[in-house]
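Sample intake — DNA repair protein RAD51 homolog 3
Collected from: Drosophila willistoni
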Amino acid sequence: MLSLQNICKKSSFDLHNKRCFRISTGNKSLDVHLKGGIPLGKLIELIGNPGTGKTQMCMKLCLNVQLPRTLGGLDGESLFFDTRRDFNPNRLKELADEFERRYSTAGKSKAMNAEQMLRNVHYVQCTSPAHLIAQVRMTNKYLAANPNIKIIIIDSLSFALRMIQTVRQRYELLLELYVSMRSMLYQHQDQWIVTNVFTNYYNRRSKKYCRVPGMGRMHSILVNERIWFSQNGTYYLGKNEKTRRIIE
């Protein structure tokens, strides 16, 4: 006979007391609002115009996840899907060198080696939407081969989808990607980061163009949180532009 305990494997007490691991963004104010950083088991979108620092934050997350647990990290590794062919390994090396100097000078950790940190960032170039979805589907194999991967980044998701001409095909691919990502979030409790840009939308009522996030309105429903980047370096949190809150 089935009992409630057999059906319900966890109680609300278990969920309340479950420890939530987080990865620091490298920005103190943003980390405070995120209660210590971006949590594992979530799908986060970084949105902003080109040159506002989205890729740099992705690189910092790839390094912060490697910090020892005693320093707030996860002793983890990362997987980076590059759709724009804009990944700069030299910039990542500069950030890794900065990490090595910071922690070796402070005497906090002898394990922070810049070259090893670069080896822990696994890189995949995706040249087309079909290539991207094939690689995302294969992520289960990547994680099985290297369970230490804690963060997966797609930079940029919107760039890959722009290659698709019809809106219908674009949404079909987007939904297929999110189904795969959600499934892996549930299985592995890792972290997915996608980047997005703004686009111009013609409002028929006002007969004016307005700036909106790419990939359509429904996209905001599919992510757990949005971090908005501005040209002046200010960050915002929120699902849409009207309800977002400034990070100070």
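Post-analysis note: The first helix runs from residue 4 to 7.
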